Amino acid sequence: MARGAGPGVRHLTVLYDADCPVCTRIRNWLTGQRQLVPLRLVPAASAEAWRRFPRLAHAETLREITVVGDSGQVWRGTDAFVVCLWALAEHRSKAEWLATPAGRPFARAAMNTAAAVRHAVRTNSEAESGEPACDDHCSAPR
Q1: Computed from CA positions of residues 43, 21, 40, 68, in that sequence, does the dihedral angle turn out positive or negative?
Q2: I want to staple 45 with a disulfide (CB 3.0 to 4.6 A). Which of 6, 39, 58, 142 is the partner?
Q3: 74 phi, psi to nearest 5 deg
Q4: How many CB atoms are located within 10 Å of the residue 18 CB?
């Protein structure tokens, strides 16, 4: 499982980009899953996110998935992806494997794929020529 997640975690808050169709689709998928640890889904950098987490770097939450635990733990990127899966009944065993050294490259690859799709979807909007539509809201895999 992702570092810091454990039996004492009562809920997780997932901050997602509400203006991103990929992020919104994933949000909807997460809400439809049976959750072992309740997930609270909050738009990143929203007034609610600022109220709940005033010390969080909110601009960063728009760039990559961020999950906050009820004890203040913060996971970003691949770790956030793994901890989200860990919270789900049907995917906990996968998450535990993805958190191992053997599984970590697969978790990273899944995140890179999601980032590439997100970038492609956001780039198809009305951006200035040569500029990504999502500017600093999303990043393509490097």
Answers
A1: negative
A2: 58
A3: -130, 130
A4: 15
